[in-house]
Design brief:
elongated, 353 residues, 36% helix, alpha/beta, 14% strand, single chain
Length: 353
């Protein structure tokens, strides 16, 4: 389609220059959902960006991320200058949609985007899409058979789609492998703890947080290890958090168990200290996300999509979701197998999936 040998039908997923697209996890959810529906409707996926340096973050076996389309520059493909295309554009509003609204929204997209012929819309523009609908679409009687035909199950969908789209840069993968090679040992049982406090902590690393307010995560991890790990295995908690002080306190409190990356997180839209800092923050987010993917079990914070993506890419039996935030505390916690949310259930809340 892009070289003109076939009629062009496009789905464009963009993040405008003014941002407000969410953090990296939300953006990846939106792009992956757009990619899925471009496949289902036989359209090419295009990713113009004003602020997303995808070619600096990711490689791909089948995509040249170094060729973005920016409206102010001469287009890299004639299709973007085609009057047939520019006269047939439709905006698709998918930003901040609630979970119950996603299935009917994307069912309508599937029906209309598959139409060909006179009057059919050639260029679908999605701006600031920040909700996932890959697993949520399995609730649709219209979409689910199409996913099954592609072999996209609940456990394989994100792994297949994201592995094709996003391969972290070599330096990032080398860093990730330092940790995942430990997790892969048969003598180790690894539990990923994603404790989300809030955007404020990423901009203020000096903010002190007491581990007492989050001890229920570690109590939960102990229950999971007792139930799932072999007695001969060494237990490791890989902790990801937006609070430097919490990570330091956790290492001090559980020195034989807790492993942290030592990386300093930055939110792509909250940290306004410059492009370099924002880019460094995205590299860190990618490294943490792909490392978290390879643990044996996940314990996540509610109201955060960051930990859900590696859980879906891992493709296991699900995760336990606990209250997060600055001041939460749970004196008793039940982390029995009955509390595990399966992969599809994880897609029913925050940012969907």
């Amino acid at each position: 389609m892009m070289n003109g040998t076939r009629d062009a039908w496009l789905v464009e997923s963009a993040c405008s220059a003014w941002g407000d697209c969410g953090g990296l996890a939300d953006r990846l959810l939106g792009i992956t959902s757009a990619f899925l529906y471009s496949i289902l409707t036989s359209r090419a996926l295009t990713l113009p960006w004003a602020s997303e340096p995808l070619d600096l973050l990711f490689d791909s076996a089948g995509i040249d991320w170094s060729q973005p389309y920016r409206a102010a520059n001469p287009p890299p493909h004639p299709v973007y200058d085609s009057r047939v295309m520019t006269n047939s554009v439709e905006n698709f509003a998918a930003r901040n949609k609630n979970a119950p609204d996603l299935v009917p929204l994307w069912e309508g997209a599937l029906k209309s985007w598959r139409v060909r012929g006179v009057g059919a819309v050639r260029w679908i523009k999605m701006d600031r899409a920040n909700r996932g609908t890959v697993l949520a679409s399995r609730e649709s009687t219209l979409v689910r058979p199409l996913l099954d035909d592609l072999g996209l199950t609940a456990s394989s969908s994100y792994a297949c789609l994201m592995d094709y789209l996003f391969r972290p840069k070599a330096d990032t993968l080398r860093f990730v492998t330092e940790y995942t090679s430990l997790f892969a040992l048969p003598t180790v049982y690894s539990i990923g703890l994603q404790i989300r406090l809030g955007d404020y902590e990423m901009g203020h690393p000096e903010f002190s947080v007491s581990i007492d307010h989050h001890r229920h995560f570690f109590d939960c991890a102990s229950q999971v290890a007792s139930a799932r790990a072999h007695p001969s295995q060494r237990i490791v908690y890989y902790l990801v958090s937006d609070s430097r002080s919490l990570k330091e306190a956790a290492v001090a409190a559980y020195p034989e168990l807790v492993v942290v990356s030592g990386l300093e997180p930055h939110h792509v839209e909250v940290d306004h200290n410059g492009t370099r800092v924002a880019l460094d923050g995205q590299h860190i987010a990618v490294a943490e996300m792909w490392t978290l993917r390879d643990v044996d079990f996940h314990i996540l914070s509610f109201a955060s999509s960051f930990g859900k993506i590696p859980t879906w890419m891992h493709g296991g039996d699900g995760a336990i979701v606990l209250p997060g935030g600055r001041w939460d505390s749970e004196p008793t916690i039940d982390c029995s197998p009955a509390q595990i949310k399966n992969l599809t259930e994880l897609a029913a809340d925050w940012a969907s999936g």
